[in-house]
Write a structure and sequence with these properties.
Structural class: alpha+beta
Strand content: 15-25%
Largest sheet: 5 strands, mixed
Helix content: 25-40%
Distance between the termini: 24 Å
Number of helices: 12
Length: 403
């Protein structure tokens, strides 16, 4: 028997009590609204409800935001061990997401957050409330709408296992160890990405090759418009501008989307070894990046993209289009607003070092190794470890019930 099994056999041989959060809590209360405009660089640490979805995991010890006490007429505080629930969200599957504060500052809870105080192991509570079973309870009965809400009464009705504290502590130790392995992999990925970007940018900055305007190494052609309603499961393979910075890497050979076949004759296409370049987007940093199209089939190109037909190594060009050296050149040509954009003329004026083809091939190959590691190998390993972690977390937190 391992340590956990011995503790269960000794402390709860007949099973574990399952209790509602209402029974476990010593207090439940709602936070008070903190506007985005009230966030400051320094001041009182605080959490806004949206950050629970985007910035915090099972537990955290430092707030990413701060505000000033004079902005909040009725401040609601949380402290070490308290659980924060976001009771408003956009997805049914995530509504009521929780995070546990294990830091030691006195912090402010924003609106649409419910704070729960209790006498259990804080991290255990965080893990117990992150299981698939707990999330299903929080999502039960919800219907899809623009905004999903969870009431305090519904939250208090959620049932979790509450074993003796020594059992909770051992489960926390085991899950912390597994989560630590994932953290190490994520830190490794971050370090490799930083190393990759440094080598890539250093090459293009220091290259002694002649620099030629992109418009002089090929022809830039704008795509043709299609809309969301044109998307189908099977049809004409296409590339939408938003996919280039969200779903594609430096190179691709399979289209992520298709549009209606009847639009085929109206489209403009990228052919094998063409580079497709982003011409519009919500973030100026995404403008101008490219993907080397390496598929055997042609792809329809959205009108917020440009296709570069050229005679260089396509991956070499695509790597350059993701470098800081290139983006520093085109920044002045980017029109910023709700939607940022750049013209073909703006893209075409950037200067790219063009060495002999054999050097382009060698440079692209060396960057390919980084691209593979950062986009496939490490992310796949992280995804596998997360899957294993979630499986064992749910197994560890499933007990024989008393009675």
């Amino acid at each position: 028997m391992n340590k956990l099994e011995k503790l269960i056999a000794s402390l709860c041989p007949r099973g574990v009590e399952y209790k509602t959060l209402g029974e476990v809590a010593t207090d439940f209360y709602r936070g008070n609204g903190i506007l985005r405009t009230q966030i400051t660089d320094a001041g009182i640490p605080c959490v806004r409800y949206g950050e629970i979805y985007t910035s915090y995991n099972t537990w955290f010890d430092t707030c990413i935001s701060h505000t000033r006490i004079e902005y909040i007429p009725s401040p609601k505080y949380f402290e070490h061990g308290d659980i924060l629930f976001s009771i408003t969200g956009e997805k049914i599957s995530e509504i009521g997401k929780s995070t546990v504060y294990v830091g030691h500052d006195k912090c402010l809870a924003g609106g649409d957050i419910v704070v729960m105080k209790h006498n259990q192991n804080p991290k255990y509570m965080g893990y117990a409330l992150s299981t698939n079973e707990a999330q299903q309870q929080k999502s039960k009965g919800k219907v899809k709408s623009k905004v999903v809400h969870l009431s305090v009464a519904e939250l208090m009705a959620v049932v979790i296992p509450v074993p003796p504290l020594p059992v909770q502590e051992e489960i926390v130790r085991m899950l912390d160890e597994m989560a630590g392995l994932i953290d190490e992999l994520e830190q490794e990925l971050a370090a490799r990405k930083q190393q990759y970007e440094w080598y890539r940018d250093s090459y293009f900055r220091c290259s002694k090759a002649k620099r030629i305007a992109i418009k002089d190494i090929g022809v830039l052609t704008r795509g043709k418009r299609f809309v969301h309603a044109d998307a189908v499961e099977s049809g004409v393979p296409c590339v939408h501008y938003g996919e280039i910075y969200t779903r594609y890497g430096v190179f691709a050979d399979v289209a992520q989307s298709n549009i209606r076949r009847e639009l085929g004759s109206k489209m403009r296409y990228a052919h094998k070894n063409d580079v497709i370049i982003v011409g519009a987007g919500e973030n100026s940093d995404d403008i101008g990046i490219g993907v080397s199209w390496e598929g055997d089939c042609d792809v329809a190109v959205h009108d917020a993209c440009y296709t570069l037909v050229h005679a260089q190594n396509p991956r070499y060009v695509s790597y350059f289009l993701r470098s800081k050296i290139y983006h520093s050149q085109i920044k002045r040509f980017v029109s910023e607003g709700k939607i940022c954009s750049i013209s073909a003329e703006g893209v075409g004026r950037a200067l790219i070092p063009i060495p002999i083809r054999s050097e382009q091939d060698a440079v692209a190959k060396s960057f390919d190794d980084f691209e593979l590691l950062c986009r496939e190998v490490l992310p796949s390993e992280i995804a596998l470890r997360k899957q294993q972690y979630e499986y064992y977390r749910d197994r560890l937190l499933t007990f024989k019930r008393v009675g």
